[in-house]
Design a protein that fits this description.
- With 850 residues, the protein is α+β, with helices and mostly antiparallel strands.
- The protein folds into six domains: 57 residues; 103 residues, PAS domain (Beta-Lactamase, 2-Layer Sandwich), CATH 3.30.450; 111 residues, PAS domain (Beta-Lactamase); 113 residues, PAS domain (Beta-Lactamase, 2-Layer Sandwich), CATH 3.30.450.20; 158 residues, Reverse transcriptase/Diguanylate cyclase domain (Alpha-Beta Plaits); 241 residues, EAL domain (TIM Barrel).
- The chain is built from 29 helices and 32 strands.
């Protein structure tokens, strides 16, 4: 970047121009035009080179730090404008002179270490003192790099003045010595490298400890603001080293066990990174002594806690909200509200509007209101909120006040109100009180859930042990449920063995499902009544507002639907309501409503499934099976509508019709010369509950002039436990008529063996559930074998239902079962088709089996 090179260019071009002119004069025959073009091209290239040199010079002079260009021996080849100003020398007075002119303290071989580093491809950095033209000195930090110019190795040296940094360091030392905040510098071994006078004064440091912090634990014990001892990894300084970020304003306590001295500090830890490092090498700990402030704050917080009163301050202009620790505890939200909107979100809608109205009238001197809210755990709370403007705030930008927890008073008032609506037996809410409470909460805008609870097998205890034991069970069950619920919900009794729980659902279905699990688990231990123990479980249905209903009646109804679905599918569990359940409920209601009209419309019919001798396949009887020919749904099997008929009580009328039709058909077959074929009829437990079954059977037999053994009544094991004395009397009377009595689906239901041995029955029917698994399933084989053994010991006949394969038939014969029915032999047949089979079976009428 020498200035002489650009200045010499025009002279060179002038000489070249003269030479060309002389050539043209000496050689007239030479064509001048190409030479002129060559001359124009040279002028263009020279102009471009001059512009580039000018730009490079401008950049060189624009650098803010002094820059020297040195040759290999240290002679200055060039100096930028910042250098002339810094050294107070002209460029001509420096160029061509050794670098010692600017730094007279350099040793003779000062370039040797420089070139050693540069030859290795590194830069070289050194702090030296340079000299101005007047002899004054100033410190600089010189960065050197190698460069090749015109095939010559050179050094570019950039000198950055350190005067400002030295002044800053001086000011820093003065600041550290004068401020009242302690400052400690820790290295990675947690050794204290330096401490300012304030740190010595606050901590009582006489000498800096040489061992790392933590190796002197008998001197200091570090605790958090709640008094819990902190491990080494929990120290804020360790967090700053570990995370590489500032740990701001942490309150810690330093306790000296030997002197019982306790110092409270507010500490900010700042990590320091050295150049090229990705982890902090040091951490500055800046701290203030807050011992007195902490002591006063602790006393104030203790007073607030005892009175359940917290403080608050709200800046209307920024919407920032400050809450004391007790106020945060009362609200029970994590993280605590930091603005007024977050506080409003803790309240119920009606209380939100009440607080907004109070805040929107700043001209009033203050307000005092009571508000209702929900904690993070779903529990309701009540607070008395007092607020007033800060003195001197004419525009009421800042409001301050107190929060007081008045939940207990409201609960006491609520309990007084609820006592008038309690169930006298269990002490929980009665039906009216519970529905009123649910309606009130919904009206206030709360999201609520209803848990409909029905006790499984309650009737067993009530009937076997008496109503007194049933009442005792209800009280014990209510106590267990209240313990499981705690204060998360409200329990009430709807009537009988049905209960209802209502709870808040601000956090979705989480709390209702938690309560359902807790309620189911509370029934796990058996209930003891003297020496006897009974297992009672619960089926629970859940409905949540607003998705499952907006009114108390809708919620309870849908929870009942979900409970019914649970009881039907599994029992001892819970189900959450869905629209599919509602549709099934609607279908059930439609079926039940149409059942009442089916008899009048003659929509019912009977088919007959043959009962055969497994040894030769001869038909020895039949079972009457109901069918319902629906005008829209087609033919319906009994399993689709019998349960509905039992629930509505219509099964009694339907059962009487089946008895009449079966007896009529037996008589018709007999009149057709097919003999007296016994027909089995299924009888519901509800038919046994009344006094009409015996009369209906006797009337049907007499009307069609049939002997009693022409009819077989099949009933499930549920009959055995509904009303044992009355059931036994009815069965004895039927047996005296000659009617055969069998237990259907034996082993699948209650299996009340203690009643079986006392009842006047003739036989057992093995459930198809067990027949389906034989002979492959060992468990089903064992059950079948056990049933045959029970029947043999009690001298009862055995019939197997649901035989579908020859292997099942052969297996049953080996077990000693000689009679059965199933698809292997025939499905349900019309009366005419079964009559045709009877004709094929015998060419002459079968003799009466009277």
């Amino acid at each position: 970047m020498s200035e002489s090179a650009p200045a010499a260019l025009p002279a060179t071009l002038l000489s070249l121009q003269q030479a060309l002119q002389q050539l043209c004069a000496a050689q007239p025959q030479v064509d001048v035009l190409p030479l002129q073009q060559l001359w124009a091209l040279l002028q263009q290239q020279v102009s471009e080179l001059q512009r580039q040199l000018h730009d490079q010079r401008a950049i060189f002079d624009a650098l803010p730090d002094p820059v020297c260009l040195l040759d290999e021996q240290g002679t200055v080849l060039d100096l930028n404008q910042a250098g002339t100003l810094a050294y107070q020398r002209s460029r001509q007075g420096v160029v061509g002179r050794p670098i010692h002119l600017l730094n007279p303290d350099l040793p003779p071989d000062h370039l040797q270490p420089v070139w050693d580093e540069l030859n290795r491809g590194h830069s070289y950095q050194v702090e030296v003192t340079n000299m101005r033209s007047d002899g004054s000195r100033f410190p600089v930090e010189v960065h050197s790099a190698a460069v090749r110019l015109s095939q010559q190795r050179c050094i570019v040296a950039v000198a950055r003045q350190l005067t400002g940094r030295w002044q800053a360091e001086s000011h820093y030392r003065l600041l550290m010595e004068s401020i009242d905040k302690g400052v400690l510098l820790f290295d990675r071994q947690l050794r204290i490298c330096s401490a300012n006078p304030a740190a010595h004064r606050i901590l009582g440091l006489e000498n800096l400890p040489r061992q790392p912090a933590g190796d002197n634990d008998h001197h200091w014990m570090t605790i958090d603001e709640h008094g819990r001892q902190l491990s080494r990894e929990q120290w804020p300084v360790c967090q700053a080293f570990r995370d590489g970020r500032i740990i701001p304003s942490t309150v810690i306590g330093l306790h000296q066990p030997h002197s019982d001295r306790l110092v409270w500090l507010s500490v900010t830890n700042v990590p320091i990174f050295e150049q090229g490092q990705d982890r902090p090498q040091y951490v500055y700990a800046l701290f203030s002594d807050i011992t007195d402030l902490k002591r006063d704050a602790t006393l104030f917080e203790r007073a607030q806690s005892l009175a359940h009163i917290g403080g608050w301050e709200w800046d209307r202009s920024t919407s920032r909200l400050y809450l004391t620790r007790e106020a945060q505890h009362i609200l029970g939200r994590q993280p605590p509200p930091e603005d007024m909107q977050a506080l409003l979100d803790c309240l119920l809608p009606a209380s939100q509007q009440l607080l907004r109205d109070a805040l929107e009238h700043p001209q009033q001197p203050g307000f005092e209101i009571e508000l209702q809210g929900l904690g993070a755990d779903g529990r309701c709370f009540w607070i008395r909120m007092i607020g007033e403007t800060v003195a001197g705030q004419r525009q009421a930008h800042r409001l301050v006040g107190t929060l007081q927890d008045v939940t207990e008073r409201h609960r006491a008032e609520e309990m007084l109100r609820l006592q008038a609506r309690t169930d006298p037996l269990t002490g929980v809410l009665n039906r009216d009180g519970l529905l009123e409470e649910l309606a009130r909460r919904l009206h206030q805008g709360q999201r609520c859930a209803a848990l409909y609870i029905d006790l499984d097998h309650f009737k067993l205890i009530n009937d076997v042990l008496g109503h007194s034991a049933g009442d005792q069970l209800l009280c014990l069950a209510a106590t267990r449920m209240m313990t499981a619920i705690g204060n998360r919900g409200l329990l009430g009794r709807l009537g009988g063995d049905e209960f209802l729980v209502i709870c808040a659902t601000e956090n979705g279905h989480e709390l209702p499902e938690q309560l359902a699990r807790a309620l189911v688990a509370s029934f796990t231990p058996a209930f003891a009544f003297g020496p006897q123990r009974f297992t009672v479980t619960a089926s629970i249905g859940i409905a949540c507002s607003p998705g499952h209903g907006d009114t108390a009646a809708q919620l309870v109804q849908n929870a009942d639907v979900a409970m019914y679905d649970c009881k039907k599918t599994s029992r001892n569990g819970w189900c959450l309501f869905n629209q599919g359940m509602a549709q099934r409920q609607q279908d059930r209601l439609q079926i039940e409503s149409r059942l009442r009209q089916a008899l009048e419309q003659q929509a019912f019919g009977l088919v007959y499934q043959p009962k055969v001798d497994l040894r030769d396949g001869r038909i020895i009887g039949a079972e009457a099976l109901m069918r319902w020919e629906h005008e829209q749904l087609g033919q319906l099997r009994p399993d689709l509508f019998i349960e509905h008929a039992e629930n509505t009580g219509d099964i009694v009328r339907i059962g009487n019709w089946v008895l009449e039709q079966a007896c009529l058909q037996i008589r018709q077959w007999r009149d057709q010369g097919l003999g007296l074929l016994p027909v089995a009829v299924n009888v519901s437990y509800r038919q046994f509950a009344g006094d009409e079954l015996l009369a209906q059977v006797q009337s049907a037999l007499n009307r069609h002039q049939l002997p009693g053994h022409a009819l077989e009544l099949e009933f499930t094991e549920r009959v055995l436990i509904e009303d044992v004395p009355a059931t036994t009397a009815c069965l004895n009377a039927l047996r005296r008529l000659g009617v055969r009595l069998s237990i259907d689906d034996f082993g699948q239901g209650y299996s009340a063996l203690n009643y079986l041995r006392r009842l006047p029955i003739h036989g057992l029917k093995i459930s198809p559930l067990f027949i389906a698994g034989i002979p492959e399933n060992r468990s089903d084989m064992a059950v079948c074998d056990a049933i045959v053994g029970i029947a043999r010991s009690l001298e009862l006949a055995v019939v197997a239902e649901g035989i579908e394969t020859a292997a099942q038939r052969d297996c049953l014969l080996q077990l000693g079962v000689s009679h059965g029915q199933g698809f292997l032999f025939a499905a349900g047949l019309s009366a005419d088709r079964l009559g045709a089979r009877l004709r094929q079976q015998c060419s002459t009428p079968c003799p009466d089996r009277e």
